[in-house]
Design brief:
The protein is of the alpha/beta class. It is built from 12 helices and 9 strands.
């Protein structure tokens, strides 16, 4: 991570896992920006300050946001409109705002209805990084290393300068690639690549716990019997219920569509099992893996230009 930070003063509202990791990544720069942080948890805020992840801590979001060149909101999606309302009196027209929420459509609708004129420079962010742990203790300055970041303009006519500065900032934080998308496409993509996998992990955990409750298997003890496959699949099932309950409901419509897609796939495998066809099962798995490998090795297209009004493209 080398280069000059495009912002001199950054305010991070919510110095938990994501906010503290973001601040920590920028503090590794040769000439880091001044970072001010807030969180209602005083112990967490003081911990972030003592570890020099931030230069100043205050529990009051308005105090932290005032005068910043960039305001980064690292809070659960349902809390962000409350934060917008809180900080609106101190945000100047020249301030750029972003958030790290993993669901965008509901936020974008509220923004258009109430805050478009209040925050005229708003480009939402979503770095594809995280952990099943929470808080400053779980933060890592390399959390965003080699991870993609989605940029989702909320402003109807985002400035190219703002997009460029935010892309540069994310590259400095460790994220080498950025993809510019609309809110609806973002939420549909995330429902498939993140939210559905989390829901499947929770569902699998529920199946295991329910099997224990039934007491029909005398030697059943899944925690001591689990192998690598189950361990890997259950890792995300230990993610924060408060955060993920919020995310899953916020992206309810797109997630329901993804559940339908997944159910169709399960019906296909169920049919092959009912048919007891070894040849069909093997052929299905081989075909599936071949298509997936082809997609994995296919390089994403590099656009000749980018659209800041409803287009989706990659850059970085």
């Amino acid at each position: 991570m080398t280069g000059s930070c495009p912002f001199r003063t950054i305010s991070v509202i919510g110095v938990g896992l994501m906010g503290a990791s973001f601040a920590g990544a920028l503090k590794t720069l040769p000439s880091p920006p001044v970072i001010r942080g807030s969180t209602p948890d005083q112990e967490e805020g003081e911990k972030a300050f003592e570890r020099r992840l931030i230069d100043f801590y205050a529990p009051d979001n308005r105090e932290i946001a005032s005068g910043a060149e960039l305001v980064v909101i690292a809070a659960p999606p349902s809390k962000i409109p409350e934060i917008w309302e809180e900080i609106r009196p101190v945000i100047s027209p020249g301030t750029l705002l972003t958030d790290l929420a993993s669901v965008k459509m509901n936020l974008h609708a509220i923004y258009i209805e109430r805050y478009a004129s209040v925050f005229p420079r708003y480009i939402s962010s979503h770095p594809m990084a995280g952990r099943e742990l929470t808080g400053v203790d779980a933060s890592r300055p390399d959390l965003f290393r080699d991870r993609l970041t989605f940029l989702v303009p909320f402003s109807s006519s985002p400035r190219e300068e703002d997009v460029d500065r935010l892309e540069s900032l994310w590259r400095l934080a460790g994220s080498p690639r950025q993809t510019l998308v609309e809110p609806r496409e973002h939420d549909r993509i995330l429902s498939l690549i993140s939210h559905l996998p989390h829901l499947l992990a929770f569902s699998l955990l529920e199946t295991l716990v329910r099997t224990t409750d039934r007491k029909t298997l005398p030697h059943w003890n899944w925690p001591s019997q689990k192998g690598g496959a189950l361990k890997d699949m259950l890792r995300t099932a230990w993610s924060s219920p408060d955060l993920w309950g919020d995310i899953l409901l916020q992206n309810r419509n797109e997630l329901l569509a993804s559940i339908d897609d997944f159910t169709s796939s399960m019906e296909l495998f169920k049919k092959i099992l009912l048919d007891d066809s070894r040849e069909e099962m093997i052929a299905c798995l081989k075909t599936l893996q071949a298509k997936a490998r082809e997609e994995e090795h296919r390089q994403p297209p590099r656009p000749e230009g980018r659209s800041l009004k409803g287009g989706s493209t990659s850059s970085g």
